[in-house]
Design goal:
Elements lengths: L1 H13 L1 H8 L2 H17 L2 H7 L1 H12 L1 H6 L3 H11 L1 H42 L4 H23 L4 H16 L12 E4 L7 E4 L5
Antiparallel strand pairs: 1-2
Helix pairs in contact: 1-2, 1-9, 2-9, 3-8, 3-9, 4-8, 5-7, 8-9
Length: 207
């Protein structure tokens, strides 16, 4: 939010008319960047991996027992079974590819639409004499990059709770005091009698 506020302030300082017109389209740019980051980060690999578990197990068993497969002439049967089990993963991969392509196309269409609108509007104000090219560039890229960064950051907001929980568990593990005091500087060993191997311990703490 700080980056978005800084970009908005710089954009309005350069040209308040152009900045306010861009501000109306900033949510669209943020949504487009959010969809793009979600598409790149997700990828649908988990769904495809789950679909290929059965077929992978068949191949693994066939390789491990290749002598039995060859002895009983099960090559074609195993190949047919493997091909049947690949139908569902192929369908899942095709659907995921179509979803990823559609999401990428929508996100890029939103982003290019925003910048197309911005350049058209900037040209309109420059022709009227209300805006210079330098102010146009400062206003556009200050607000555009900050809005894109805000959309990308919003994509990872859902992982904040999980990250905080994981960090607290790590620090609990680091700060944990074991029930047995294993500090060597608190332990002192002394042999009671030098003629034998009997030894006693002093200042050893057990919690």
């Amino acid at each position: 939010m700080g980056a978005l506020g800084f970009g908005l302030g710089l954009s309005l300082t350069s040209s308040w008319k152009f900045g306010l017109c861009l501000l109306a389209a900033v949510p669209l740019l943020s949504v487009g960047e959010m969809l793009n980051m979600k598409n790149l980060g997700d990828g649908g690999a988990s769904a495809i991996t789950d679909a290929t578990k059965k077929s992978s197990s068949v191949v693994s068993e066939a390789v491990q027992m290749i002598r039995d497969v060859q002895a009983f002439g099960l090559e074609k049967r195993i190949a047919g079974l493997y091909g049947t089990l690949l139908v569902e993963p192929s369908r899942a991969e095709r659907n995921e590819s179509m979803r990823a392509g559609a999401t990428f196309g929508i996100s890029q269409a939103i982003t290019m639409g925003f910048y197309g609108y911005a350049f058209w509007l900037g040209g309109y104000f420059i022709n009227k004499g209300d805006l210079t090219f330098i102010d146009f560039m400062k206003s556009l890229w200050a607000l555009g990059f900050c809005a894109a960064g805000a959309g990308q950051a919003a994509m990872f907001m859902g992982d904040k709770t999980a990250g905080n929980t994981a960090a607290s568990r790590i620090f609990e593990l680091i700060d944990r005091e074991p029930p047995i005091d294993s500090n060597p500087f608190r332990r002192k060993w002394r042999c009671a009698n030098h003629s034998n191997d009997e030894c006693s311990s002093e200042r050893v703490k057990m919690r």
